[in-house]
Design goal:
Layout (H helix, E strand, L loop, with lengths): L3 E7 L4 H5 L24 E4 L3 H7 L6 E3 L16 H7 L1 H9 L11 H14 L4 E7 L1 H12 L16 E6 L3 E3 L3
Parallel strand pairs: 1-4, 2-3, 2-4
Antiparallel strand pairs: 1-5, 5-6
Helix pairs in contact: 3-4, 5-6
């Protein structure tokens, strides 16, 4: 059994996040004053396929591999909508989605489906060494819920800010690494 260190990093801030709008695949990151990453030579980098994740990964040195399993949660008909618009036009649907992890009222992927997708990805992750994976807030919530064995509803109680890091290790089971 080989040791694995996996650090998930949330993509950098987007205009959508800044203005309270749900994401689109083509959302770009806002300019950064400086690179938020230290020297990461020797670390392998994976990224979700969305533009905001790829742009964040490009801030790292070296080659980057796109990992489709790290794709953001599919929000279906709600992609790109402002939260205020949803609160005004679809308050019951929004409340159901926020309270029920199995809800897919938007016609996309439910949080419980995302949790299963991320659990499957972690279970199949068999690459030893040190890895960084650029992904999204909901994916990081899903990974935390899986690694800690929390009820799916706990995912709504986790705030993931831009450029947040989630450090994991694997030696027989995934473990949260606090530092």
């Amino acid at each position: 059994m080989k040791a694995v260190r996996l650090t998930l990093i949330c993509h950098a801030l987007t205009q959508a996040q800044k203005t309270g709008r749900l994401h689109h695949a083509d959302d770009a990151i806002l300019p950064l004053a400086s690179s938020p990453f230290a020297d990461l030579s020797g670390v392998s980098v994976l990224t979700a396929p969305e533009r905001r994740a790829c742009e964040t990964a490009a801030l790292l040195s070296g080659g980057v591999e796109v990992e489709p399993a790290l794709a953001d949660c599919d929000l279906g008909r709600w992609r790109g909508l402002a939260l205020k618009q949803l609160q005004a036009e679809q308050p019951q649907a929004l409340a159901e989605w926020l309270q029920n992890p199995a809800s897919d009222v938007h016609g996309g992927e439910s949080f419980s489906a995302l949790c299963q997708r991320m659990a499957d990805w972690l279970a199949a992750f068999d690459r030893s060494g040190e890895w960084i994976a650029i992904t999204h807030p909901m994916n990081m919530r899903a990974v935390l819920v899986q690694v800690l064995g929390c009820p799916l509803g706990a995912g709504q109680r986790i705030d993931v800010l831009p450029l947040s890091r989630l450090d994991l290790s694997f030696t027989g089971q995934w473990r949260l690494r606090l530092g």
